[in-house]
């Protein structure tokens, strides 16, 4: 088992504490993210997903509890937030709204320049980061980011975070608002970054299908607490429990559950189309019979 890279212990966060508008966003969250994992964080709207991940790089501070990043506790006055934010890169929902420089190159270079790096190092980081997200630096570097497609702008924003060389990449709804092709491109790039670079990836998504395809583990939040934390197959195998809090399961899992309810004794822990097809063929070829309820 790999080493922990982010640890939350009894993490509680209360917005506007002590005021009439007080709101408890997180309550006693215990969570460990390990190096090299790809973890999905899901939950109903308002369950605390975005609040949680903003504690990973110190954008928010715990009202109660403690947070460690790479073995160092995040505390006020310790002078460590600058280093932590280099280790944990956070890509907000609709990150292209944060693009502001005249060129793609300058947008991606913004973070490295703030680190005080030499021009040669900045140049290398920008070019490499754009290549990692599938954008030719010679073609896209001189262009205005506002001349790009939605998917391309999203990739530029991710490249800007990657240029800081984080150990952990947190993505809050990275495919929101994109068309199907744009979603496939972004997810493919994220998968490639995770596999080739060994990044720890945290993916917040409302799409159970995306989480099933991308992640090894699922953390489900509900009313500011950890409702479920399990490997992806085990988590989506608990369909009734997930549906009890307003979540669903991936479409593939839903089809298998319907087939099982109709009498075909398939296993329901398959999460890709290919796995589902193989499972259905396996059962049918095994000579098992349908129940009288049919399909």
What does the secondary structure layout of this molecule look like, with pairings?
Blueprint: E1 4-15, E2 23-34, E3 38-42, H1 49-53, E4 64-69, E5 72-73, H2 81-87, E6 88-91, H3 104-114, H4 119-132, H5 137-140, H6 150-162, E7 168-172, H7 180-197, E8 200-204, H8 208-214, E9 217-222, E10 225-231, H9 232-236, H10 239-243, H11 251-261, H12 273-285
Parallel strand pairs: 3-8, 3-9, 6-7, 7-8
Antiparallel strand pairs: 1-2, 1-4, 4-5, 9-10
Helix pairs in contact: 3-4, 3-6, 4-6, 6-7
Give structural notes.
Helix 6 (150-162) runs parallel beside helix 7 (180-197). This protein has a single domain, classed as Rossmann fold. It has a six-stranded mixed sheet. A four-stranded antiparallel sheet has the order 2-1-4-5, with no helix packed on it. The longest helix has 18 residues, at 180-197. The protein starts with a strand and ends in a 10-residue tail after the last helix. Strand 4 (64-69) and strand 5 (72-73) form a beta hairpin. By secondary structure, the chain is α/β, with parallel strands linked by helices. 38% of the residues lie in helices and 22% in strands.
CATH topology grouping = Rossmann fold
Classify the beta-strand content into a percent band. 15-25%
- From the alpha-carbon coordinates, what is the Rg to the nearest angstrom? 21 Å
Low-confidence stretches: 288-295
> Please, what is the oligomeric state?
single chain
Order of helices and strands: EEEHEEHEHHHHEHEHEEHHHH
Kindly give the count of domains: 1
Strand order of the largest sheet: 6-7-8-3-9-10
The CATH top-level class label: Alpha Beta
What's the average pLDDT?
91
Globally, the shape reads globular
Task: Return the structural class.
Answer: alpha/beta
Fraction of residues in helices?
A: 25-40%
CATH architecture descriptor: 3-Layer(aba) Sandwich
Q: What is the rounded distance between the termini?
A: 43 Å
CATH superfamily caption: P-loop containing nucleotide triphosphate hydrolases
């Amino acid at each position: 088992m790999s080493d922990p890279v982010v640890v939350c212990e009894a993490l509680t966060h209360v917005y506007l504490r002590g005021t009439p508008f007080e709101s408890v966003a997180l309550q006693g969250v215990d969570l460990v993210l390990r190096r090299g994992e790809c973890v999905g964080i899901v939950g109903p709207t308002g369950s605390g997903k975005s609040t949680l991940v903003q504690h990973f790089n110190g954008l928010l501070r715990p009202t109660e509890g403690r947070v460690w990043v790479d073995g160092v506790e995040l505390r006020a006055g310790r002078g460590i937030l600058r280093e932590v934010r280099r280790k944990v890169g956070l890509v907000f929902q609709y990150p292209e709204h944060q693009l502001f420089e005249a060129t793609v190159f300058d947008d991606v270079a913004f973070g490295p320049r703030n680190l005080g790096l030499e021009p040669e190092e900045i140049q290398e980081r920008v070019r490499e980061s754009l290549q990692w997200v599938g954008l030719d630096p010679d073609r896209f570097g001189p262009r205005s980011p506002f001349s790009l497609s939605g998917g391309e702008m999203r990739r530029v924003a991710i490249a800007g975070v990657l240029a800081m060389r984080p150990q952990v990449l947190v993505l809050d709804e990275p495919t929101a608002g994109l068309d199907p092709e744009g979603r496939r491109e972004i997810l493919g790039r994220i998968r490639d970054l995770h596999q080739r670079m060994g990044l720890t990836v945290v993916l917040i998504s409302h799409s159970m299908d995306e989480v099933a395809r991308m992640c090894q583990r699922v953390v489900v939040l509900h009313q500011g607490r950890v409702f479920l934390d399990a490997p992806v197959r085990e988590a989506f195998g608990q369909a009734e429990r997930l549906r009890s809090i307003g979540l669903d399961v991936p479409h593939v899992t839903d089809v298998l559950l319907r087939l099982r309810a109709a009498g075909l004794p398939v296993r329901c822990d398959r999460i890709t189309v290919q796995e589902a097809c193989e499972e259905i063929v396996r059962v049918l070829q095994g000579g098992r019979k349908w129940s009288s309820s049919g399909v």
